[in-house]
Amino acid sequence: MDALKFCTDKLIMVKGMPVCPGVAITEGFVSPYTAAAVCLMTEAGHEYAGQTLDPCGSVLSGECGAALCCDVRGIIRNEADKKGLVYLQPSYGTVSRRGLVAQMASADQTGVAAKDAQTAFGVLKIISTRDDGDGCMAPLAEAESQSEINIFEAEIPFEKFLPAVFEILYCAETAGNVSRFDGLKFGSRANNTAGLNDLYARSRGELLCEEWQLASAAGALVLSKDFFDRFYRKAMCVRRLFFDAVDEMFAANKNAVLRLPAAYKNAHTVTALAGVPSLFLPGGIRLAAPRYKDEWLLKASKKF
Amino acid sequence: MESEKYFNMAAIRLPQEKKAGMDLKFNELFELFCLLDGFETGGAEPLVSVLQTGRALRADEAVKNFTREELLGCMTDSDGGYIAAPKTLG
Amino acid sequence: MKNNPEKKGADKMEYELVMGLEVHVELSTETKLFCACSTAFGAEPNENVCPACCGMPGMPPVLNKRAVELGVTAALLTGCEISRTLTFDKKNYFYPDLPTGYQNTQFFNPVGRGGSLEVETASGKKTIRIKQIHIEEDAGKLVHERGKTLVDCNRAGVPLIEIVSEADFSSAEEVTAYLERLRALLSFANVSDCRMQEGSMRCDVNLSVRPYGETVLGTRTEIKNMNSLKAIARAIEYEYGRHTDALADKTEVLVQETRRWDDARGVTYAMREKEDATDYRYFSNPEVLPVALDDAWFEQIRASVPETSEQKKIRFLAIGLPEYDAAILARTKSLADIFDAAHAHISEPKEISNRIIMDLIGMSKEAAVALDEIKIDGKKMARLIGLTASGKINRAAEKLALYAAMAEDADPDEFIAARGLAMVGGGEQLERLADEVLAENEKSVSEIIGGNQKAMGFLIGKLMKKTEGKADPKAAAKIIEEKISRIKARQ
């Protein structure tokens, strides 16, 4: 792959650059270190072109050839699709999360927005290197010789329930990961606070972004004694069933990738909950592959 | 569902003008969660991670990649080598 | 504190103490539980810190293998049932000494459950049941100065085990005995140095009182901030008094709460509501994959758990050592190790323990080597014992060679040859030299024959001198006696 310029979205930490730009509570907090994926890219000879709050816009405008993003809620990939770009979400655990501001840690993954699949996979090849700084890693499957990858369609197992499962787990995990943003240590604080509890409550009330506020409160609910079994534990059990069902589905369709319905709004829940890789191509084409067979997505994409 | 209890648990005191809107969104989420009441999981065990049991263990060797100055320099108030906060209550 | 001696005396007979302990012990690892920061004591504030342990985002936790092994070791030493899968959970609350807003602990699945520890007090022996042992992270340290709360994250993330007992304690003596026993056990096995003054062992006491015979527990208070065994004993005594006074006089209402011990004033004071009120919203940390303690690793840990003193003593007695020897050797690890090393090469337990107790202990002083650091190659020691037993050297020579083996790891045979210490034991050479001695000292011979036994020692000495001290004194004595007897018989 030729040398390219690449950007990072607001959830990726780069030494000397603001942490979570655009989020008030981290204003003034400059990162002391650089994410593993970014280091790998620069070491491979690619130029870091800075942070972006609009990864798709940056790729489209030519500011960069690829944008590294963390898109667990599926917003960026839906946008990429609409703007004629490609978005690749690799299998969970294949890219080090060191330097990624954690939200739903069991699903967080660095993905790539690019103009074409070839570029996206070129980037994946570089950033999917094992890192001792992340204890939750697994390797991509070895490249295979067969070139024919088929495409099948199927009903998503438990489709109706996936949004609930995803939200419960997203809120619970994110709540636990953004509690560190408390106004005490780094970033910004609310003014004129009276004592510690006031500092926490008002800093987080005034400066934390809405998405994280909501996740923190809803996360507290699903983890609370009253609701733990009913929501959180149950969501984890449904996730188990879904995980197994997805594996079964791929086992029944050998050497094939799944094509998700174009209208399906919750494609991100599939990748998040099962950890399988997915590729969004322009024109509403969404493909998902068995875990670690990310390469099949590239092969399949050539059909479009 | 009264959302204030949970915002408090999460150490979040919303500005007055935001409370109503957030309460609405909170309750929308709660309703979504309730959809799960209609699902029978049978005897399924919880899944904590999509990865199998790990052996990602670290050798017990000290590494120092950051100086004190680098890290304290990121803090809002680093008083004499400490991270400083207003006095705690109680 | 109310002071009505009569009343107090009556109280003490009416109410019994019921206590459980939560002991936090810092594990002797080089690094923290989930990051590679040093745990070294005494650093400047925030010196041993990285983005992970001071609460910055983006650093996934990577579990310290040694911490796991020490946690399992502690559970083994206390006879716990071990969990063969290790998991960690987040305990969520907001406090300045908790940089991430959660503590990694083992809520759902502690590493050890259902152990026990035997303690001995003046009242006798008692078994204290251990409910569980779990591994967790320590919090940072807070300093209150200049109207601010100052946070030092050096301690944040340091691996701890928490040892939770059942409410089996009924006196301060039992509590002290338990803590001393725990310290001896864990420090012996290098799990922790358990120094209360340095904070590597901390103890919270959960205390309640109830009338004798009552089965329902009284109101429980938790006492924290006792920095020594003495402070614990004093705090228990104070709190017992406070509880019994409240029950007897009904002037104070006992509330379930956490209280802090103020050692200077000798009182406890209320801190905050007991944490049952807080919902910690525990959930499994998805960033810490469950660790399987497979058979190979488990056996490796089990094998590396050092034998306790008690176990050693039992083993030495079984080998055939007398009580006195077994006790001395079992008490000091270095001596026990020497015994085991030599015993692997020569099956003469008493001979070995004699050398250790009668020779080596004194020699260590001479060589200015601390007793718990004394070392000697077991094979060499066995060799020397064998040489003496077979008459090749005498005890004097053996002791010299033993010292050299201890101080310089000298090879016995080489040493003996170099110093010419091989004994002139018997046979022709001794015969010839004995004849010389008798010939050179006719007067003494006559005296002995005439009945004066005193000269016997003189002649034996002369023979020893001729052999340059290398003869076996017993053989020398024997040969002189025999020769003189024969001379006498001929007369």
Features:
heterotrimer, A: 304 residues, alpha/beta, Amidase signature (AS) enzymes, nine-stranded mixed sheet, 10 helices, 9 strands, 13% strand, globular, C: 491 residues, alpha+beta, Arc Repressor Mutant, subunit A, 3 domains, 16 helices, 17 strands
If you had to describe this structure to a student in words, what would you say it looks like?
The complex is a heterotrimer of chains A (304), B (90) and C (491). Chain A is α/β, with parallel strands linked by helices and 304 residues long. Chain A contains ten helices and nine strands. A nine-stranded mixed sheet of chain A has the order 2-1-3-5-4-8-9-7-6, with helices on both faces. The mean pLDDT of chain A is 94. The radius of gyration of chain B is 22 Å and the shape is flat. Chain B has a two-stranded antiparallel sheet. Helices cover 33% and strands 10% of the residues of chain B. The longest helix of chain B has 19 residues, at 16-34. Chain C has a nine-stranded mixed sheet. Chain C has a three-stranded antiparallel sheet with strand order 6-5-16, with no helix packed on it. In chain C, a hairpin with a 2-residue loop joins β7 (112-121) and β8 (124-137). Chain C is elongated, with a radius of gyration of 33 Å. The interface between A and B is large, with 75 and 50 residues.
Number of β-strand runs of chain B = 3
Radius of gyration of chain C: 33 Å
Q: Given the helix and strand composition of chain B, which structural class is it?
A: alpha+beta
Distance between the termini of chain B: 31 Å
By DSSP, the count of extended strands of chain C is 17
Number of domains of chain C: 3
Strand content of chain B: 5-15%
**What is the helix tally of chain B?**
3
Shape of chain C: elongated
